[in-house]
Design brief:
Radius of gyration: 34 Å
Strand content: 35-45%
Distance between the termini: 89 Å
Shape: elongated
Oligomer: single chain
Structural class: mainly beta
Helix content: under 10%
Length: 478
Amino acid sequence: MTEVITSDGATRFFYGVHTEDETGSTFTGIVVKGTDIEYDPASGLPVFGTIDRMEYHDIVNGEIIVTYGTYTDFSRSITKMNQLFSSEDAPWYSASNFLGTSIMTADSAVTYQASSADDYVLGTAKANELISYDGNDLIYGMGGNDILKGGEGADVIAGGGGRDLIHGGNGEDTINGGLGNDTVFAGDDNDYVDGDDGNDLIYGHNGDDTLIGGLGKDEIYGGDSNDALSGGEDNDILKGGDGEDIIYGDEGRDGLYGNDGADVMNGGLGNDELFGGTGEDNLVGGEGNDYLFGGDDNDTVHGGNGSDRMQGNNGDDWIYGDASIDKMAGGYGNDFMHGGADNDKLNGNSGDDTLDGGARYDKLYGGACDDTLNAGEGIDQLSGGIGSDTFSVDVTGDVSKTTIRDFKAADDHLTLNLDTEMTAEEVFNAFTAGAVQTGKHVYRSDEEGNEVILRHFDLVELTVDHFEEQEEDDFMLL
């Protein structure tokens, strides 16, 4: 079965072979003008004629010698061959019309160097080398392991089948790797690259690039400037490089690396690993059980759904859990951590940290320096560690049971949210009225069932001088 390319009466289609000797370069073949062309939709080739090989070299502003039928040779400047192509049926014309020279070949290897015009270059099912110069070109490698080079101009390059090597060159290029495991260099300027199917290797280089892995296990490197990277399906590796990058893992178990710059990263679906690098990064784990590492500077880390492990590392970081069991560590700066609505474990490490357990059963460890630990609702265990720490307990919501494991009278403070205005003496009386000494521990409870336990502490060490007047909605300070 064949289909038809409908001619517009002015378009020239060239088929033939190229030879080169001491007299110069010659393209020998046929020219069809004003005639509909039948082609095989499976191969994309005309149904008449075949060639063994076609090569095109050094034709910028040169001439092509064409022999057709029984007519004599004639010459035509390449710069005068820019004509509008139009078709309703051919698959390679389905997107839009193009200006330039159309080169369509049979099932054989092709080496072609385009002109300075806007060219349309179609390879074969074999291994082709198609090279563009100036102009906004469209290059389609089709099958085979091709080498495709866009050159100057805003080019559209499609690898087709096979293991292709694609260079976008200068200009804002649009590149599709197609089937197979491709290697793509987007080049300078702002490029769009879709690896499509296969395990692809994609480099953004200069410019604000959009790089998409597509299907398969892809590796994507953003390079310089502000890039957008998306892994697509399967397990991908995405590295933003310099600049402020947007990195999205999408499906699969992905590895995301922000490197330099203030990056925005989202793991998407799957159990992902995110590393912010330098710069003030924003990391979101997304779905799945993720590992997030903020890196240097002041980062925002959000685990998302799933049981996540989060670490701020250097800088003053903001770290948030969600509705699952999360583990988080602050690192070396003054960090803020919120556990969310499940059984969480928070460790401030170094720095003056603020730890908020949220709801359910949480464990909070302040670490070194002066920390603030907020118990929240549920059954919580708080350890301040080294330094002068403040333990905050909310007894106004649902029933809570808070155990403070290392309260130190000489260094630490206790705040109790009673949600009312009280003098310092009234706050002291409210706490001690419900407190008893049982062995080595202090137990304080109220009518709603809220409990505060100070382990290894003597109640007699508390005095009214430790309390301050409390305004409504404030905490009292002990």
